[in-house]
Every structure is written in structure tokens, then in C-alpha cells.
Design goal:
The radius of gyration is 22 Å and the shape is globular. It has helices at residues 10-29, 47-59, 66-69, 73-82, 88-92, 104-107, 114-127, 145-155, 164-167, 175-186, 201-214, 219-227, 231-245, 249-267, and strands at 44-45, 141-142. Helices cover 57% and strands 1% of the residues. It has 268 residues and is mainly α. It has a two-stranded parallel ribbon with strand order 1-2. α10 (175-186) crosses α14 (249-267) and α11 crosses α13 (231-245). It folds into 4 domains: 1-41, no CATH class; 43-132, no CATH class; 136-169, no CATH class; 172-267, DnaA protein, C-terminal DNA-binding domain (Chromosomal Replication Initiator Protein Dnaa, Chain: A).
Length: 268
């Protein structure tokens, strides 16, 4: 296998891989359409804080699916040890290392000891762990506010017009401003959009979606701000909104109107 350079374009590689592999798979199995649930997406991670946590989350993916989710600790550990499509074994044993994996970045956060990383994984199986996606900012950045401020400082004046839209994730609209813009677009009072019994669920879902897109807020944080809702309720209502937008032109118009108002807040 050829070596992979740190500056190789992973996004471009994944785009070509998706096209080529999906085409080959469809021809082989005489099918049409997409093969993967969603498109490739990269996120920027504050390594010193979140890389270790994210690594564990990914390595525990194989036991989160139904056939293995309810199994005992010993059974789940055996699944992880035998799962061939994971880099975990190289983190646990020197003899299982792959030449193309950089283990030092993660192991360096547990003093370079594979035994400590094993214990970290075991803790996740036995006691549970946080889902890092709940802390995602602007759908693309996993880091603290200080990290985002540093990114913004580095990118100001250094990005081309083509790249500039992606940098808007470093900006944020306050929750109160989101609520004000949505209530203005909908022509209703702000208090009718929040709480456990809003005037219309579609409207509350729109507030949630705008806070997620433009407020750099995670779903748990949105739930608290909206009126003591849990993470799963926020997730369901955002999904319900997107599904209705696919068939409801008026709702689409309201979303676009709100987006314009929030974009003006960012640019102003």
C-alpha cells in the first residue's frame, strides 16, 4: 500500500472513492442509487481536549449496533478484538500496528501507554461515555470557545471568496437573537415558540434548527434553552422539520426568510 502524506486531499479521495466504489458495487449487485447513508463529512477537532474522547467513540462503534448492544462486557470486548475493520488492535498491541496509522497522536494523551488506552476503552464499555457529536459547533468543529476564537483569528483575511462561506461556522448568533429573528419571520411572539407546549411544533422545530445552524449550539444545550427539553426531543423535532420542508413550500419559504435574517446578523 502506498504511503499517505499528511497533506494529501482526503476530501477529494473520498469523493472519488464514493463514486468508484458505489458504481462497482451497484454493477456487481445489479442495483441503482446511493450506497452510503450520507456524504463524506470532515470535522475540525481540538486535539488536546477532544481527540482522545473521539477516538474511543469511534472504536466503540462496532458494539453500538443491535446484535451486540445488549451483550455482556466480556462478549462486547471479544467483538472489538475480532473486528477487522478497526484500528483498535494496533492501539492495544505493538504487534498489531499498521504502518499507515499514526498511533502517537492519541496514545500521547495517555502517556504513550497502550495499557492506559485499553483501560480507557474498558471504562467506556462498562460505564458509558459522552457522545462527542453533542458538543459539535456549527456542525463542523469539535472544540472549546477559545479554540474557535483562535481559528477565527487565523482565518480572518486569509480565505478566498470561494472558501469564505465555510468560515461562517466560526461566527455565532446569540440564542436570543435567533429567537427574535424567527418570531419576526413567523409573525408570532417569541414566548409562543418555546416551552414544552408551543403554539406550533413546526415553529419550535424551526427555532431549534436555526439555533443549531447559526447559534453554534449542541442539541442538549438547545433543549435547555428552549424550555427544559431533552436531547432526543430536539433531535426528533429537527428531523420532523426537515421532512416537512421536503413537501411544504410555505415552510420552506419561512426557513429561507429566517436564514436571510440570521445571515444579516452575522454580516452586520
Amino acid at each position: 500500500m502506498p504511503s499517505v502524506k499528511p497533506l494529501d486531499n482526503l476530501s477529494e479521495f473520498m469523493r472519488h472513492f464514493n463514486i468508484a466504489y458505489t458504481g462497482a458495487y451497484n454493477r456487481r449487485h445489479k442495483r441503482v442509487g446511493n450506497l452510503y447513508q450520507g456524504r463524506y463529512k470532515a470535522i475540525l477537532v481540538e486535539g488536546d481536549i477532544y481527540l482522545l474522547e473521539l477516538s474511543r467513540y469511534l472504536h466503540l462503534n462496532p458494539i453500538r449496533i443491535k446484535p451486540h448492544k445488549g451483550k455482556s462486557y466480556a462478549e462486547q470486548w471479544r467483538v472489538l478484538e475480532k473486528y477487522r475493520w478497526s484500528s483498535l488492535r494496533g492501539y492495544l498491541s505493538v504487534t498489531e500496528r499498521e504502518s499507515w496509522v499514526n498511533y502517537d497522536e492519541v496514545l500521547g494523551q495517555v502517556r504513550g501507554a497502550r495499557s492506559h488506552y485499553r483501560h480507557f476503552i474498558e471504562e467506556g464499555i462498562k460505564g458509558g461515555y459522552d457522545t462527542p457529536w453533542e458538543k459539535l459547533k456549527g456542525q463542523m468543529i469539535l472544540g472549546r470557545e477559545e479554540f474557535l476564537r483562535k481559528l477565527k483569528g487565523r482565518t480572518n483575511g486569509k480565505t478566498s471568496s470561494r472558501e469564505q462561506p465555510s468560515m461562517k461556522i466560526l461566527e455565532a448568533v446569540s440564542p436570543d437573537e435567533v429567537l427574535k429573528k424567527v418570531s419576526r419571520a413567523l409573525g408570532v411572539k417569541a414566548e409562543e415558540l418555546v416551552g414544552k407546549r408551543p403554539a406550533r411544533r413546526d415553529y419550535r422545530g424551526l427555532v431549534m434548527e436555526m439555533m443549531y445552524r447559526h447559534g453554534r449550539m449542541g442539541q442538549r444545550e438547545i433543549g435547555r434553552r428552549i424550555g427544559g427539553l431533552d436531547y432526543s426531543t430536539v433531535s426528533r423535532e429537527r428531523k420532523r422539520l426537515r421532512e416537512k420542508m421536503a413537501v411544504n413550500r410555505e415552510l420552506n419559504r419561512l426557513v429561507q426568510k429566517t436564514e436571510r435574517g440570521l445571515s444579516e446578523s452575522l454580516s452586520g
